[in-house]
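Re: the pair you flagged

First of the two:
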Amino acid sequence: MIAITFALPAESREFLRSLTNKSRADRNGVRTVRGKIHDRTIEVLHTGVGERVCRQRVGKFLSATGRIDRGDHEQHFDYLISAGFAGALNDQLQLGDLLLAKNFSTLRLEEDFSLSTLPIHIADLLTVPALIDSSEERNKLALTSGAVAVDMETEFIARACAAHAIPVLSLRVISDTPKQLFPAPTDVLFDIERQQTQVLKLATHFFARPHHIPRLVHFARRIARARKILADALVAVVRKL
């Protein structure tokens, strides 16, 4: 059985379409989606964005491992894959590139593992407390940390997996870069406290700046492309495990 985490449904949507025999589940009060890829059972958890909610949900989720769940047989995870989007820190990675975070992954793939024409870059990932919409700050972090990309959850997921002795693989797709950042201020795009985008705030921002709307459209298209690349990669990885 393989657990796969995403921060938000916006990241998992395409992958969930790949699952057969889908059903909703509840693990220790945390809602999940179960399904199959070939003969492998998959359970998908949305961790939320950022440390507080991620640690809470992952903690509950993994603490339930091994319990009888709604009349099911006892369930143990063989692996956990921390998946989702990441922001590149420099020009080493481009939009749509795949990154296997070597500093967080205890489950190893072959060094020459690739997906068709899409190689997986193997390098360090940095977990940060907030979205970064400054090219200068990203370049500085690249120099000081040695990482090539950032996310907001993987460090806490990896810690929880270590505590439960579950092998983890961190696989991310690049959704933004120093040259192609977000189409609006990060607090407009996503409210971390509420764990959602405030539609009225977003609409008000772009209503006052109609010339920025093409940026939003372009961003939505590249997110859709990144989501598809990640879904295809995850299916290929699951088949190899």
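Second of the two:
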Amino acid sequence: MSTPAPTEIKLHQASRILEIAFADGASFKLPYELLRVYSPSAEVRGHGPGQETLQTGKRDVTISEVEPVGHYAIRPTFSDGHDTGIYSWEYLYGLGAERDELWQRYLDRLAQAGASREP
């Protein structure tokens, strides 16, 4: 089954939320911080399982720009300079569908590492 295409993407700067609606009626509100710490870039994910780099200090990160990548993805530019993640529609849909679980996993990893969301 292929992921439906987005019908709308909005950046809410005050709340630091990317809102995305898909053609199947699903819509998600993704915090910029979640998007940043789960960037699909090699810098964050590594080049294989177990090579992920925990992102810390990203509570206040913003998105300054979103660039379309073909008809299948976007590439946001974050306020900390990160701009190498290409977020496919499928990846964004998955982040939205699993947002609560991913957020808790992030908080647990920070706690285990003795790290903080604070910049």
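The mean pLDDT is 95.

-B.
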